[in-house]
Design goal:
Strand order of the largest sheet: 7-6-5-8-9-10
CATH architecture of the largest domain: 3-Layer(aba) Sandwich
Number of helices: 18
Number of strands: 10
Oligomer: single chain
Order of helices and strands: HEHEHHHHHEHEHHEHEHEHEHEHEHHH
Strand content: 5-15%
Shape: globular
CATH superfamily of the largest domain: Glycogen Phosphorylase B
Distance between the termini: 22 Å
Structural class: alpha/beta
């Protein structure tokens, strides 16, 4: 891919004008060829880590985990509580983390798998970049960020991005937008008719899939909780089938349920009627929920979701985990606890505290805002 990147930069620079200057810096994901291209050009490069700081630290420990036989697992016989609950006490800044809390794909990778080796190599070579941007903020992940500061010369926690974007004049953002699915804003009008903090928002992100049985159990649990809900069900969410619910579900929830294919999530989470969020715990959804002060029921499926779930539930006190063996009774019980129980009330309080910290971080003199200024002035506007 390096030749492609080099060709692209050549074309951009050849067409440079006074209004469109040549490329003088790169902001990239963690594809290694971008570092090589920046080095060849003698221009700075910042790697943008879209996952949490905790997840990035786990990536950084992939080789030691491999050497200690903790990842990937050799076979399914290791999937016991004794093994999964084993505490890993040597990962910097992540005290008490267990094997089960690591990004879940660590369990399944073959040692020769290209993704396994790419992830390991990318984390190890990230130090060659001019800077690393982490979509987080200091007050949220302070301990692990302190550990990362000692490993990499320039780490810049900048987030939550949506709160920073909200400070940009709207006219400057009108032409910017990206969605995998068409949003259905009608759900906002439906939410307007509901009481404050009375609705559960359910969204498992853009790529999670379920089988029919899981979907029905989840739906019946929501129905039996007797709480109103907005549920986002993508057209491709059910493996090999359409999302079809039993007649009893449709009848019981016709007045208190709203199902859509997609929605403007930030607006939904910030709507006054939303009292809780059932999520797969992808980092984008997790940090948006934190920014909105909404507590979560976490149902991680793969990737970094398990790590995010651990921190939401055990470290930040803003979530409860739904077991992967999804059944309606468990869903019903947890939804009721989230919306009306004592633990739910404590989670709401903690969520609002985290929101306050997020708002402070993105204020003009907040840590994330200052880190953005530092990134621009110390790295992106400099030359290697």
């Amino acid at each position: 891919m390096a030749p492609f990147m080099s060709d692209l930069l050549n074309k951009l620079n050849e067409t440079a004008t006074s209004n469109v200057p040549p490329v003088t810096c790169i902001v990239s994901d963690f594809l290694l060829f971008t570092i090589a291209t920046a080095e060849e050009r003698g221009i700075p490069i910042a790697l943008f880590q879209t996952a949490s700081a905790c997840c990035f630290m786990c990536f950084k420990q992939l080789r030691p985990l491999k050497e200690k036989g903790l990842a990937p697992i050799k076979d399914d016989s290791f999937l016991t509580n004794d093994f999964l609950n084993k505490v890993i006490d040597w990962i910097p800044g992540m005290i008490g983390i267990r094997v089960r809390d690591l990004p879940r794909f660590f369990r399944w990778m073959d040692l020769n798998d290209c993704w396994f080796n790419h992830t390991m190599e990318s984390a190890e070579k990230a130090c060659k970049a001019s800077a690393i941007i982490v979509h987080s903020f200091d007050a949220l992940e302070q301990e692990v960020l302190n550990a990362l500061y000692s490993m990499f010369p320039r780490v810049y926690p900048i987030g939550p991005l949506q709160l920073l974007l909200n400070q940009v004049p709207e006219d400057d953002l009108n032409s910017i937008g990206c969605n995998l699915w068409k949003e259905e804003p009608e759900c906002l009008q439906w939410l307007d008719s509901k009481k404050p903090k009375s609705v559960v928002y359910v969204n498992f992100g853009s790529i999670v899939v379920m089988n029919k049985e899981q979907l029905i159990e989840f739906g019946m649990g929501l129905s039996e909780s007797n709480h109103s809900f907005v549920w986002i069900i993508r057209p491709d969410m059910v493996i090999g089938q359409s999302a079809i619910f039993p007649a009893e579900f449709m009848e019981e929830t016709k007045e208190r349920g709203f199902i859509a294919n997609w929605c403007p999530q930030e607006e939904v989470l910030n709507h006054p009627s939303i009292g809780g969020f059932i999520t797969h715990c992808g980092w984008g959804s997790t940090i948006e929920s934190i920014s909105s002060g909404v507590p979560m029921l976490c149902c991680p499926f793969f990737g970094d979701q398990q790590t995010n779930c651990r921190y939401a539930c055990s470290e930040w006190g803003i979530g409860m985990e739904i077991d992967n063996d999804i059944n309606r009774e468990n869903v019903k019980t947890l939804v009721r606890e989230l919306m009306e129980g004592e633990k739910g009330k404590k989670m709401k309080k903690q969520a609002m505290e985290r929101k306050k910290l997020a708002v402070e971080a993105t204020a003009p003199n907040g840590t994330s805002s200052m880190n953005l200024d530092k990134l621009i002035n110390e790295v992106l506007l400099s030359r290697n």
